[in-house]
Design goal:
This protein is an alpha/beta fold. Helix content is 48%, strand content 16%. It binds coenzyme A (COA).
């Protein structure tokens, strides 16, 4: 484990997840991708109620580490680089807690794909957003043509991924890619204020609302359905009756419904 993805779980219910590779504009390599999975698991199992995702230094994230992925064989690229990225980004997008992304620097390529995993994006007015991959001879491979299309709409993604357009924060807000634009230097504070509002709301209802929206969007339908049904089943007397019968090696008597 490196310290290039920092996680701070605060007592007040906020978790801060921070990319910490400022010298490379927080470009993500394999170790960071694996680290993200572990950090998400820790958040998932904590009492955290809202996550603030940000990047150290001048960029939010300049994408996948070009030096790292360009060394991969085509097979390793498809089998590991792309698939591992999906595992990590799925874990982030499917956290039960709402995630607020602080875009106080550029979000390009994998950085845009990472930001897309958040529930809300707050961008500073000076930042740029885009998918430059086709200019490098590769495709956006960490869900930059899939989750981004579901969340931002196909046309905005076409403009970034096919035409190579790079959007200003203002244009990205107009297209629904970011939710709010704030002056330079104010995104972190805006995220804190937004997180404080989330913390005023019912934790359970907020978590359920996120699950339902994710299910409606096709983000994680099977898991949501089974998690909700599992909670209902586990809350009923039937579980205690069934388990007691199992322990006592007899048939359960569930009675009437
Ligand atoms: N992968 C690996 N390293 C990256 C990187 C990436 N995606 N993006 C930036 N870096 C590195 C640079 O190589 C440089 O390292 P060095 O100081 O060892 O040379 C360092 O981060 C700073 O970047 P630099 O290009 O000098 O900063 P800048 O402010 O002049 O330009 C960008 C900023 C974002 C416009 C430019 O870095 C860029 O175009 N990055 C690539 C974006 C991209 O194509 N992402 C998709 C990748 S699939």
């Amino acid at each position: 484990m490196t310290d290039r993805i920092l996680l701070e779980i605060e007592t007040g219910g906020i978790a801060r997840l921070r990319l910490n590779r400022p010298d490379k504009l927080n470009a993500l390599d394999s170790e960071m991708v694996d680290e993200l999975v572990l950090r998400c698991r820790k958040v998932e199992r904590s009492t955290t109620r809202v996550v603030i995702l940000s990047g150290e230094g001048k960029a939010f994230c300049a994408g996948g580490d070009i030096a790292a992925w360009s060394e991969e064989t085509p097979d390793a690229f498809g089998r590991h680089w792309v698939r591992d990225g999906h595992t990590a980004f799925d874990a982030l997008a499917r956290l039960r807690q709402p995630v607020i992304a602080v875009l106080d620097g550029h979000a390009l390529g994998g950085g845009l794909e990472l930001a897309a995993c958040a529930d809300v994006r707050i961008a500073e007015e000076q930042i740029k957003i885009g998918s430059p991959e086709t200019g490098l001879g590769i495709i956006p491979g960490w869900s930059g043509t899939q989750r981004t299309v579901r969340r931002f709409g196909a046309q905005a993604v076409r403009r970034m991924a096919i035409l190579g357009e790079v959007f200003s924060a203002e244009e990205a807000e107009r297209l629904g890619i970011v939710d709010r634009v704030v002056p330079t230097g104010e995104a972190e504070q805006a995220a804190d204020e937004m997180a404080a509002k989330v913390l005023e709301r019912s934790p359970r209802a907020t978590e359920l609302a996120k699950m339902m929206v994710n299910a409606a969007e096709g983000e994680e339908r099977e898991r949501v359905i089974e998690a909700l049904a599992g909670t209902i089943a586990a809350s009923s007397d039937d579980l205690a009756i069934g388990l007691a019968a199992f322990r006592e090696k007899r048939k359960p008597d569930f009675g009437d419904t």
